[in-house]
Amino acid sequence: MLEPVFRAGETFPHDPVISEAEAMMAWVEQSQAVMVAVDVAGALVGTYYLRPNSLALGAHVANAGYVVAEHCRRQGIGSRLCQHSLQAAKRLGFRSMQFNLVVGTNTAGIVCWQRNGFQVVGTLAGAFRHRQLGYVDALVMVQDLMEGSTL
């Protein structure tokens, strides 16, 4: 499920020639938590990773990445994964969650993240080299996880 998304070169910065084994290693090995979602038949429909966004003094900020199986998109799975990851991040003691590189052409993802409480705090001009469109903008998005706190 990861390999086709990485190979598409549209939403993740990984090398498009990445193998499934390399994709799994990047997804799992560097993460504090990994969640997989399955349908009633046990088929994989989505996954997310959760990890610190930075080292030591920045490790209280979470980062996450999400992939939904192509045949399951537009069914609310990404939103449910996002909500689950936010609760998991809170349980793990993270104070906020930040997405560092939300590709500006990923409108479904942007709408989903905003619907789930994320705010755009910056635009990185030409920061993503889209495999089909060339250099496109990327967004930095954040959500505070502390009760009663505002960004």
The CATH class, by name, is: Alpha Beta
What is the CATH T-level topology?
Answer: Aminopeptidase
Q: Extract low-pLDDT stretches.
A: none
Q: How many H/I helices?
A: 4
Q: What is the CATH superfamily?
A: Gcn5-related N-acetyltransferase (GNAT)
Helix-strand makeup class: alpha+beta
Largest sheet: 6 strands, mixed
How far apart lie the N and C ends?
34 Å
Q: Give the strand order of the largest sheet, numbering strands 1, 2, ... along the chain.
A: 1-2-3-4-6-5
Strand content: 35-45%
User: How much helical structure, as a percent, in the residues?
Assistant: 25-40%
Give the overall silhouette: globular
Name given to the CATH architecture? 3-Layer(aba) Sandwich
Total strand count, please? 6
Mean pLDDT: 93
Order of helices and strands: HHEEEHEHEE
**Computed Rg:** 15 Å
Please give the oligomerization state of what you see.
Answer: single chain
Tell me the number of structural domains.
1
List the helices and strands and how they pair.
Elements: H1 2-8, H2 20-28, E1 33-38, E2 44-52, E3 61-68, H3 77-91, E4 96-103, H4 107-115, E5 119-130, E6 134-144
Parallel strand pairs: 3-4
Antiparallel strand pairs: 1-2, 2-3, 4-6, 5-6
